[in-house]
Protein 1
Amino acid sequence: MVPDESAPEEGGDPVVARLDDALERVAHGATVSVPSILLQQGLTLAFTAVLTNGFTAGAYGVFAVARRLQQFLLHLALGFRSGLSRFLPNADSTAERNALVTVASVILVGVATVFGVALFLAAPLVTRATDQSATFETVLRVFALGLPAMVWLFTVTEVLRGLEEVGPLNLTLRVGFPLAQLCVGLGGVLVFDDLVAVAVGVVAVSGLVGVAATAWLVRERDLRPRLRAPTGDTADETVDPPVWRRYLRYTFPLFLGAFATTAQRLGFYPLIAVYLTDVAGGVFAVGVLVGGLVRLPLMGINQFIPPVAAALHEEDHREALARLYHVTSRIVLVGVTALSVPVLVYREAVMGLFGPTFVEYAPLLVGFVLAQYGACAAGSVGILLRMTDNQRALLVVNTAITLVLAAMAIPLTIEFGLPGLVASFFLMLTINNGLEVAALYYLEGLQPLTRLHARPILAAVPMAGVALGVKVALARPVAPVVGTVLGLAVYALVLRRFGFTPVERRLAGTLADRYRAVAGRITA
């Protein structure tokens, strides 16, 4: 049964106390994470725009497809990463924490090294099979050699997330790496005029940023290699470590599931390499990037949902977890809707940032945005399945939907080309997310939706009307700016008219207080 969150709450309710603590921790992460995620996305968009405008659309497509093939293996290796967020919040000692980090690091870097060597050796065969150029083979081999370094970067950031180190996490993942990547892109275009130089630079800076973050953990959190966890009263009492078995038992199903989830998200690029053109690869990569902008609210909330949800589940605070899911999913829906409407209305202007070739494909942006909207509408459903120890159910769901969609994507791509591939992308995200919601409800009784979720959708109607009216009345580049600002103002007014629940006001108030405190420190 869904709690009535619009009713007043008693101050002495233990559920409310736990919910307050969970909201405080989520807000703590979002306070720093949301601005840094915005900066990260802006830097990534700038990096992509530099390449699409500095090289031809086809040349960028070669780079994008090669990088996504490497990322396919990167995400497979990162299937072993989720155990860090699951176990680090509940580690009993520094020694146990260090053992968890060491075990995870050995597994992740080891798997990444195997995958990198395999991709390097297979690069000539892949190039011939896809009828690609020599540049493609060279770029692919560069990314293959850099796979362990890139996996290490994401391993370190997951350690920071598990330890709830908000500032260092965002400085590493959201600022340091994308800023360094942008500098590499500018250098590759303006100085070298060479895509291979860009690939080498991306790999190099990922390793350097990962090393810098590791040095911070060693200095500030006393991170040390440790292959065994304590089992007695002193840190010296160790046995052949159960931490290895516990970590592998939890993460191995997630690693297997990563084959399905990675095929869902990156399996489109092998189809592009085989059946479509280099330009199609560039357009698809840009469409996924721009469509991903609507995920920003979910990404902000998700920064510390894993450790918070893991702690609530471990301590059996079921009602607090359910109510946290309700309020965070509604906040996500409000933000996702606000971002989706302007991108849909002004899609030609958005795609024009990447060059005239991409404007021709602006209608396809609708499919990318709606796919991400469907993936975000239910909030942190995949994370909750993992943090409630239902990783095997997640594996079954993802495997089933991957097999079904693989059977659909190939004929759709052959028959309709790039539009068919975009349709497959839309089906993959929306259907998979729906099945994950059903699995979470069946296994844990958790579901995201209440009647209050209709409010942001209803408020989007006048927002879209205003944005479309401005688009007709004004010319570019004024129309997108004015229409977006006025549309968001109307959206906010309608939501305010609908009203907010006490829990929503508490979360918003916590965020506002933290932002005011941050602003005060900056201006002091």
Note: Confidence is low (pLDDT under 50) at residues 6-11, 233-240.
Protein 2
Amino acid sequence: MFGHDSQPTRIYSYGARPPADPAQLAAVEEQMRLAHRYRNVLVEHELARRALVDAALAEMCPDLAGVEAQIPAAERQVEVLVGDLTSEQGRQRKKVRPANLVEPLAAARVSLRTLRDGRKRLRVRLFAAPEWVDRQAEIAAAATAAKKELRAAAVASGLFWGSYLQVEQSLGGIRSGAPPRFERWDGDGHSAVQIQGGMSVPALFRGSSTLLQVDPVPPEAWEPGGRRLRKTVARVRIGSTAGRAPVWAEFPIVLHRPMPADAQVKWAHAIRRRIGTHCEWRVQFVLSRSSGWAHEDRALTGAVGVDVGWRMRPDGSLRVAYWLGDDGAEGELTLDAGWLAAKRKVDDLRSIRDDNLNDAKARLAAWLMPAEGPNASAPNLCPAPAWLLEATATLASWRSAGRLAAVAIRWRRERDEMQQPAERRRVSDTTVRSDTTEAFDALEAWRRRDKHLLEYEANLRDQLQRRRADLYRVFAATMRRRYRAIYVESLDLRTFHELPDPEEPASDPALKEHVRDACLSTLLGAIRETGAAVAVPAPHTTADCASCGSRERLDGAALSHRCSRCSDVWDQDRNAARNLLRAVSTTSAVAVT
């Protein structure tokens, strides 16, 4: 990367606490806000660049402009028809497909697809035209110059160079694919520092660097019973003084595992993740190692086929993988019924919060309604503080509980101010309606209840995700210690998250309901981390009978299937694992690093 030979890297992540010094904490939070703002600025810059490209293409080909003008109207028509069909299905509480709604929607989708295909063909032809080369160079040069100005502005605002490099790296593929989207600030933050050329782990603990330092721990910290000795402090540079001296942020961390002495530190990241109304902090070190990251306990022989997917078991558990080794051993990886029940509880909590939010909005809107009546200007009957009327002007369209909670918090502050002596008040409202207290108490009661449910929901979700990740890591480690090669099917996980169109027939809930529960990306990531994963491009591994090779039509919700040719009854996932092992000898397998 950046002209240097890349080496295998690993991320060592440690739990941390925020800086104890309020000034340091404020500086870290400011860096995180500036980095977030810079990201959205780059998104705006990319959208502007794409607009210039579209304008240049339209100028080169008037037909393209005509097609472009028709697409928004076609998209709106599809949205309206989808909304009508979804509303009808919601009213009847089932996935009905009335012809008077489905047929116009299908025709509108065909029309929209035709327009988009025509636009794509025109753009491909224009991109291949010789005259586009010069226009493209002009746009690219202007975009590069503008991006440099944006970076200079970010630096002038106080953004440290390590953080803006991390933002730019995270948006490395922004020029391809779908248009990027803006992200709102939700408290999650990221501050980074890059160690150019790398720094050895011993140097990291010596404290000689002006970018990154970690206080050493005693050798006995890694012995049994030495957990208390693993607490230390990581100092991450977040800026410079006028004299170019380092500005440090000190994070108390726990080194739950040692870093390899022969590794090089490339990056350090201070990360804040919001969970409910509190934040979790971590300090991560990106380490590279010329010798690689092969585990010492990795098996030297053996192969195993692992078929990943999700399928409900009769006992209420969710199978996410089935494995079959060349030594005859086999088994399955499942999320138990208790875990699934807890996951459904998370969904229920979210639904309860949504209902409570709608009820609170309706109550507040009903209380604010008299402001439009004839008594709105009567003395001592001011319906609400002026700021409240202005802040809730679009209350009916709010979908964020946090937005309404912010109103409740401000209202509480304003009421506290009103209770101060007149000479100490900062608010301008001097009269309130007689039922203001009742309305405020109702909104405050909702806020407190919603905060409790939010904490419950967020913490339960976090616990379940951690349990699942730990289960997957243990499974991957077990496979690594038993088999030298772990064969998994090449999968495009994006296809599993595609939702069916409203006009399509209702699919089996077992096929789509648990896609997020299984989280196959986490499982495959744990398998790849072992260094033993091998991707096998083997289509139809589940449908092809491993005994006779017949390609079968399967019921995706069923566990077993009887072959129509040889009459063998086999577990669908076990059959896929057998086919994976067999495919290794007949197809090109690609090692996954």
Note: Residues 436-482 form the longest helix (47 residues).
Protein 3
Amino acid sequence: MIKFKLLLASLLLLSLVSCGQSTKNKKDVMDKEHKYTNELIKETSPYLLQHAHNPVNWYPWGEEALNKAKEQNKLILISVGYAACHWCHVMEHESFENEQVANIMNDNFICIKVDREERPDIDQIYMNAVQLISGRGGWPLNCFALPDGRPIYGGTYFPTENWMQLLNRIVDIYEDNRKELEKQAQELTDGIRATELVELNTEKSDFLSMDLDRTFTNFEKYIDREEGGNKGAPKFPMPVGYEFLLHYYYFMQEEKALDALELTLIKMAYGGIYDQVGGGFARYSTDAIWKVPHFEKMLYDNGQLVSLYASAYQLTKNPIYKKVVEETLGFVEREFTSKEGGFYSSLDADSEGVEGKFYVWKEDEIKALLGKDADLMMDYYNVSGAGFWEHGVNILLKNETDESFAKRNKLNLKELAEKVNTAKELLLKEREERIRPGLDDKILTSWNGLMLVGYVKAYNAFVDKSYLKAALKNANFICSKLMDEDYRLSRNYKNSKSSINGFLDDYAFTIQGFISLYQATFDSQWLKKAEGLLEYATKHFYDEKSGMYYYTSEIDAALIARKMEVSDNVIPSSNSEMAKNLFLIGRYTYNEKYIKMSKTMANNVKESAINGASYYGNWAVLMSWLIGETYDVSIVGKDYENLRKKINEHYLPNVFLSGGTEEGDNPLLEGKLVAGKTIIYVCQDKACQLPVSRVDEMLNQILR
């Protein structure tokens, strides 16, 4: 953490809380019902539109605001949040709707509002600044900068009185100690530029099984063996870390990895973080037992968790995992899917100004709705027991298996399932009559890529054609609305408009989605599109010096730092996903250059990945491919579809499928078509074992 001098020591009013992460229509003129209208009215982001009638003279990020700051020699206030953020709403209501506060802000600052989901590049920079200053971060993020954009101070949520004191103190310091602020701004900017700075590792890129063992040993230190997930509170789902546990179990047969994964999946599925009535997961649990969620629902969480539960089902055949996938995709279809096939971003934590009000239940409500089965269902969902929360309301959750509950209540499983399903239908119908949380209906390319993969993996695991249909509709939506002919992607889409150039994660997760579609359909167009996107991203984002990718394209307007995103978090880093994409497309196209690039990237972060536990989970998955036995499996012939489905009944993370009725121009299929037969080829390093015609024979070649 940077140590600052006396001029800012008085500013360390620690922000108290933060989001550790009904929209009005665009209008060209000030609405009569609103006293104030600012420049945000021209935007499409629901979060920005929420602030369009604040008395603060907000600007969106852009040349107009940045030029004004330079022309007027004013400090900039960059305020970053997102539509589903509870504490963002609190600070807006307390401070940004307050005319007295707004006057101070307007008189002394150029005020810029940023939707972190639309502009993660800006959020990265100023979040880094706040973390360097205080050692913590979150949203709302409020960062002060010089007129040239270099940060000088920042924090998260501030109560109104503290906020006003901070504003006035910043103004005084700017007037009296400008040279010191210049020096501090440069120190902070240098610190930001050094964060996640990756240098080329010139040592040989060797990956050994002991590297996976060391990675798991470090991961294991943080596993909560009682409640699943990481130790302590709050508890965030970390799907990519759990994917590593799956891979590690598969390659190393380490039961402790599978035990930790299954405990986490069950505890989450039973907890309040999972919507027991409507399906889908909240962003995180505020406690250590998955009980009380921060009620916002994010597309990226649900897309990744669908993928994870589907993969876990392939391995274990646990019916709970299948139910979670079905209910979560039901939620996504019902509440997150546009008519065009795109997926919306999030649901707010609040309704009627109260966090979680839409999701919680009073005992008398349930009794009135469920009648003679009310007592049974209140026991099932721990109403007025473990599920009791505050102010007389309950968060529905489970704490035992259906088998145990049925036995205890002298029911068979079929009877219990019928009663539970009926109760859910009644509760969901009643809940639909409530005032709903706000929907952030912007469509983000990267998050759509994650949800696309979720649908494909669910299709592979459960062979439900509706899942593949949704995936294909989404992929075609991305191609028609978000991708140009030269493979340039846009970041966002709303009201038939895309306004932001794509970032690296937009390419990384869309490529992942298209590769997964190829693997599920053997339609070569998706592999070709994935390769086209990879070539575009490499041309515009790749850094030859380090062998890594920048987060922003070189055609974008420069910020004070050009960042690389390396460590994984609740979403995999864009570099880790690109490294996996390079490996896969290199395998599918026999492009050794791509595979070499992938190995270089993995080698650059190898020691960080080994020591970084779940925060490098996606890198660890790639390492498992580089270490373990991986196979190119081709199915060629008219019956390829049935054989592909049978193969996908198994969890095989080291198998990369291709196939079809013809060889086409795929080098993996060349010379493999046998007239009148459907043949399976298991190959490694361009050398194939004897062809077989049955899945069990193929599995014997892989699993022996």
Note: The first helix runs from residue 6 to 9.
Protein 4
Amino acid sequence: MKRWITIIIGLCCSAALYGGILFSGLDLKEPGELLFKAEAESPGFGTFGTLFTADIKTRKLQQLTFFPEAVIYLRETGQLQIQNRFGVFRTDANLANIEPVSIFPSFVNGMEIQEGKIVNVTSSPDGNYLVYFKPISPAYADLVLFDLQQGKEVVLSRKLLLSYTSPGALWSGDSQFLVYTKDGTLYYYSLGQYRDGRVLAEDFRVLGKGRIENVQWSSDGWLYYVSGSLVYQVRSAEFFTRSLYSELLRIGRIIGKIPFNFDPNFDRFWISPDGKKILLDKGGRNLFLYYLSQEDYSNLSSETILPYLYLPRNTRIREVLWSKSDNIIILTGGRAKGEDSTTLFRLNLDKRDAPLYFEKMSDTGVTRIVLSQQGDKIVLVTGEGVTVREMGTWKELSSLKHPQPLSCVWKDEETLIISGMIYTEEAPLKPGNNRLIALSQPGTAGFTVDKGAVGLKTEAGSFLLENREWKRAESLTIRVPQAASSEYRVYLEKIFSYAYENMIMVRNLKGLGTNTLFPYPKKTYDPFPEKEETVDFVHFAHGSRIRAREVSLVFNAIDSVEGLNEILHTLAEYNLRATFFINGEFIRRNPDAVKEIALSGHEAGSLFYVYFDMTDSRFRVNSDFVKQGLARNEDDYFEVTGKELSLLWHAPYYAINTEIINASKDMNYTYVGRDVDPLDWVTLSDRTVSSGLYLRTPDMIERVLRLKKPGSIISIQIGQLSGTREDYLFKNLDLLVNGLMQQGYSLVPVSALIEKAR
């Protein structure tokens, strides 16, 4: 009996650990108008609330606040589109009357509230088309085009790698073509062919091998394609011919070369508006500017001395803007001492009489940069507002205060639309009357005492809802929330095994029973196994199978640091702690990276002092050798971080035998195994000896989600492998985390699994 009480308590704790949807703030007005709030956790934004009203009799819901997880201004129609996990919403042409977009499911129309990251919807430059991924599984999606003029949805391609960060497709500047990638191949799609009803089969629209990272559009309609060390230029009008005769014709005209082979896993590039220069990001930290030329054999012109920017390993390039006046603005971001930080760099190529160099700008705290449509002005978004600067001179043109801004779009050359944690507004560059478009969060909300209208108070002021529009209020008094009217009583009920933590219940006081305000989610979590599996606390390969729906992600840091920045960033976005196993070679090569792991609050275990197969018969590994190797790794880790390693470890390659286990047991170490191997260590060259083991990233993710159980330990390797891979699991870590969250799993360090299993 005592054991089952422990299990029940564990299940309750597990539900509390998981960040599901939480309803609160019930306030019922006669005869049956209910005000309530839904709280959701959004990676990168934290927890935010959304305000709703409901007509209890009809069960009709209306959303009153709109948190801007993603914002698009549809220039052709003059509408603003706001997207979040409750749906996709759009204003009218006057930036008023926000309504759900009917083509997308929304919570007020019966959709279940989304968890984790959301798939962004992107617009064509002319605003007539939308492109988005429609998920068909945790790692795969169909790529969909929506024609706003005809209200028609078209599937462009089926079963692509799902992405929460990639736009899915790159639009040409005239909105006539888009390019997308599938299974390592680039394809084009012609909007002219679509309108004429003569779209070719996908096999006849091949551009070449590569991914979205291999291509860029220029403003004048050229597609630039980097393959190996060659830079090609392709006119969109030639797509059909070159695709049809791809076995005979090259993808395009060679216009230049770069001194490295391009790897889309780690490299990126940008083309200047005039098409004569390329900015190459090699490995995420080395920025080179090159003038494009085929004549590199004996060309000794002064253009061979070019600017170069070397970034720290903890830094990644967030955005690059290249203006028509040949100004390059680069926003970088990294994690230092467990916190995010950004830096702004500028390269002015228009100054031909001065030395070229990347200038570190004095602007601090910049989170977003946005170029105006004409390209002569730039917006810098910071935590306190936005600053508008002239691109050429860097002169400040305007400074606008806005509480906690998140994003900014240009409505026209003189007007911005700023979206933030509290509200979205239309803001002219010159001092004038800013116009409220939407409130982002409810703050303290309820019905007012005097009018019975919906009012709310935020740190930016008070607001009153009048004729479906929010108006600023000098003062308002919100009444004490009511849970009952003459006809109904409302209350919250805790639920389990669903993404929602609770449900809003409505009792009809005239004797017609009690029902939920809206249906339970259709999706439920997998049931727990009926029986517990034996847990070995000396060789800990998994945690309890029945006490909590929890798993551990463990990251093995062997020698290469590639991918660590993305891993730490993703874990921070989801507010997760993980376990890192660190080898001595990694400590010696990357001491600053080891410090960052420690400062980010993650658990650090030992991956031994040297990296080799300890069960290989060529080596004599005894108890003393194991103990000395563990102790040496402890010393090196402490010397770098000033902290102690956790008494958790596993041998290189997860090698194991009795002597290895007993030696570490004598030192009070727990040997941590794994029960889910994604096979992310298998390279293309391994396929000759490990047939069938090589998997692409989406298949690795689906393998993990298929094999995992409560208490599973899932291993992921950090770094670029010596063999070749088409992709890397750590580059799509958010897909794996989202998939686990959507199946109801919390992610915890290994020590938490051990504690829960005792």
Note: Residues 1-18 have pLDDT under 50 and may be disordered.
